[in-house]
Amino acid sequence: MDLKYVPVAERPKTVNSERNCLFCGASFMPKADRRNYMQNCCSRPCGNSYVWKKRQQPIIERFLEKISISNECWEWQGSTSGGYGAIWRDGQSIKTHRLSWLIFRGPIPKGQEALHSCDNPPCVRPSHLFLGNQLDNIKDCIQKGRFKSNKGENNPRARITYEIATIIRAL
């Protein structure tokens, strides 16, 4: 038997566990360099059909399958935007905490936002959400001590402190 060394870059990239295609059910060996949805499907057409099928799934089902429910917050496990969960609905990205309010509590009045009482952006638990406007959100932020002012020496571009400023003013 003639053994020859094959560099890692030239070795075939395969995963050693046989899987069943999520779309057509055929068994196949996934390649390691494929995208996530392609590792679950036997071919590109099946992968594309699987993704399309998932997109046609009702928004509530898609929403519920991406939540990790615990005793405290219900964490969003899907994609995020600015720390908040996001999901596609009717060709637009919608924040998942707003969608949670719509599903479990009803419509959000115009000019109102779904705000977090737990201060955890990925949380979608309805009991941790309340309605309010932007001013309510800022007041809540200040009350909980999360508001950071950039005035005076707190500004990253500040060159002098309050003490130096009072000395200069006294001159």
How many DSSP helices?
6
Low-confidence stretches: none
Gyration radius, rounded: 26 Å
Beta strand %:
15-25%
Strand order of the largest sheet: 5-6-7
Order of helices and strands: EEHHHEEEEEHEEHH
Helix content: 25-40%
Structural class: alpha+beta
Mean pLDDT: 83
Distance between the termini: 92 Å
* Main beta-sheet annotation: 3 strands, antiparallel
- Give the number of DSSP strands: 9
Shape: elongated
Please outline what is shown here.
The chain is an alpha+beta fold and 171 residues long.
Topology:
Layout: E1 19-20, E2 27-28, H1 36-39, H2 44-56, H3 59-64, E3 67-69, E4 74-76, E5 80-81, E6 84-89, E7 92-95, H4 96-104, E8 113-116, E9 129-132, H5 134-143, H6 162-170
Could you walk me through the main structural features you see in this protein, from its secondary elements to its overall organization?
The chain has 171 residues and is an alpha+beta fold. Helix content is 30%, strand content 18%. It has six helices and nine strands; from the N terminus they run E-E-H-H-H-E-E-E-E-E-H-E-E-H-H. The protein has a three-stranded antiparallel sheet with strand order 5-6-7. The protein has a two-stranded antiparallel ribbon with strand order 1-2. Strand 1 and strand 2 form a beta hairpin. The N and C termini lie far apart (92 Å).
